[in-house]
Amino acid sequence: MNIYFACSITGGRQDEKIYGEIVRFLQSQGHDVPSAVFALPRDVDENAMNPVEVYQRDTQWISECDVLIAEVTTPSHGVGYEIGYALHVGKPVLCLHRRSVDISKMITGNPDINLRVVDYKSWEEVEGKLQAFLET
Fold it and tell me: What is the pTM (predicted TM-score) of this model?
């Protein structure tokens, strides 16, 4: 399966560890994650990239993916946009967030049948919720 992984880049990297765990799990299950680089420590400054190229690259990856999985604990304008874009083009979307953090009501209040929002407390919960989402 081709999976677009979305996470905060310029909005904050405090959840970088879980981003990497999610991407490693998806890849270990044989999935292609073209956006896997977003989960890595920021060796490349995406702010230095041309915004038009970033938009074109990311929307193309989303259009080509089977599903979008987003870790939304850290607020991010870009991730919100990617979620909306994916839903607009009919992609199933899974939004994961730490149980102790409130997330945007624009996500939790969205009734789109392709959107699933789940919280987690531990990596084991994340793994189980990823597996359940990918099986449906």
Answer: 0.92
Token pair listed for 119 = 């919280």
Q: What is the pLDDT of residues 92-135, one digit of tens each?
A: 999 999 999 999 999 999 999 999 999 999 999 999 999 999 99
Domains of the chain in sequence order? 3-135 (3.40.50.450)
Q: Which tokens is 106 given? A: 């624009």
HSE of 116, CA atoms in CB hemisphere, 13 A: 14
